[in-house]
Structures are given as C-alpha cells and as structure tokens.
C-alpha cells in the first residue's frame, strides 16, 4: 500500500501521464480541467513588438505629459499649436485663447493616460514572453 500512496503523490505534483505501479488497485485520478489561461492564451505580441511598444509608451507618456503641462500653463511658444479662429479674438480674446490652451492641454493628458494603458499592456506582454521562455514543453 505505501507504493500506491507514493506514486499518487508523484503523479499529482508532476503530471497525470505517469502510470500507477501494478500492485496498486486504485484507478487513475481524473485529468484536471484546463484553466482559462490555458484555454485562451493572453499572449498576442512577440518579444520585440512588446518591448518596442513599452519603449514608445514610456516616451509618449513623458512627451504628452510635458506638453499638457506647458499647454495648461499657457506657454507662449506653443501658440502655433492652439487651434484658434478669427471669432476667438472677438469679445474677451485672452480668455478664449486661454480656454483653447486648456482644452489642448487636457487632450494631451488624456492621450498620456491612453499611453499608460498601452504601456501596461506592453509590459504584460513582455512578462508573458519571458514566462513562456521558461516553460518546458
């Protein structure tokens, strides 16, 4: 009987393809159901594409966050990038231009948040690719 207990433990921890010794009257344990991760792989990028996406996301977050800061502080250097029209100079022109600066700055912050999400996705892909390298097939 000890041989059956030992072989059952080795089967549970290694794999289910190991046969029981002939002295064991116990039947084979049921195969485990595949987990959700095994059924649908979350890995859809290769290692180079994932690393490239991570680098570009880091650069995009830094660049867009700085542009957002400069637009919301109404930097005069960026006046060419503010989409104003002739009607914006009528009435309270300075307030209209400042509101346009703020809108462009908020758009830069929104784009930076989207880049953070893409960077997180790329980071997950890099980690999954690293884990795939260590798996034994």
Automatic annotation (TrEMBL):
Main location per the UniProt record: membrane
Subcellular location: Membrane
Keywords noted in UniProt: Membrane, Transmembrane, Transmembrane helix
InterPro entries: Ribonucl_Kappa, RNase_K
Keyword Transmembrane: yes
Annotated transmembrane regions: 49-71, 104-124
GO molecular function: RNA endonuclease activity
Annotated Gene Ontology cellular component terms: membrane
Recorded topology in the membrane: Multi-pass membrane protein
PANTHER family assigned to the protein according to its UniProt record, in alphabetical order: RIBONUCLEASE KAPPA
Family: Belongs to the RNase K family.
Name recorded for this polypeptide: Ribonuclease, RNase K a
């Amino acid at each position: 009987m000890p041989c059956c207990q030992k072989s059952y433990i080795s089967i549970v921890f290694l794999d289910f393809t190991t046969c029981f010794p002939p002295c064991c009257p116990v039947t084979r344990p049921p195969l485990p159901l595949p987990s959700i991760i095994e059924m649908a792989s979350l890995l859809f990028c290769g290692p180079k594409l994932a690393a490239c996406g991570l680098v570009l996301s880091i650069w995009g977050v830094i660049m867009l966050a700085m542009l957002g800061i400069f637009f919301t502080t109404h930097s005069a250097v960026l006046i060419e990038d503010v989409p104003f029209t002739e009607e914006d100079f009528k009435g309270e022109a300075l307030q209209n231009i400042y509101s346009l600066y703020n809108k462009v700055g908020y758009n830069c912050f929104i784009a930076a948040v989207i880049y953070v999400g893409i960077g997180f996705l790329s980071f997950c892909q890099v980690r999954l690719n690293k884990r795939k390298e260590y798996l034994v097939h």
